[in-house]
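quick one before i forget lol
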Amino acid sequence: MSLASEHATLVAAVAETRDREAFTRLFDHYAPRLNAYLLRLGCDRAAAEEVAQDVMVSLWRKAHLFEPSKSSLATWLYRIARNRRIDLLRRDRVDFVDPDNFALDIPDEATVDADRMLDSQTRDDILRNAMMQLPGEQLSLVQMAFFESLSHSEIAEKTGLPLGTVKSRIRLAFTRLRRALESSGVVEAD
């Protein structure tokens, strides 16, 4: 089963039976990605977290409105996040950008040009090197989270570690990776 169809099944479970475990799996997968997307769009950290949380609450409340035949769950959630960000900008009237000129900017790998591919390869090499510098227990948890698409709860169950330990080790790993990427100039320091 593909990730998209698995997520559509989880959304259906949330819509039909208010399945908390299904929602937790979706939350663990999408909330960090939405947060990163909003940060790339220029939200500050607090606003990005607030909007990401709001989008996930919308998923919980309006899961019955999701139509997998019209779009993927990711596209649906990113569009909600984009619209919520526009609403915030309108409300605050700070650095407002006309929504007609405000693209959804979900990366499309088919349109990546050669320069971006080279930049991407360089960034991948730096990230791969930074990952190899992580302590083994952190590296294995990050690999399970991102390469196996396991939620924090699933990782805790699979490894026998307490959920808090899993979250702490992943958070520490991200801090180390971010520092390595900042020192290499891949991302800007806060």
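fyi The helical segments are 3-17, 20-40, 45-62, 73-92, 114-132, 136-146, 152-159, 163-183.
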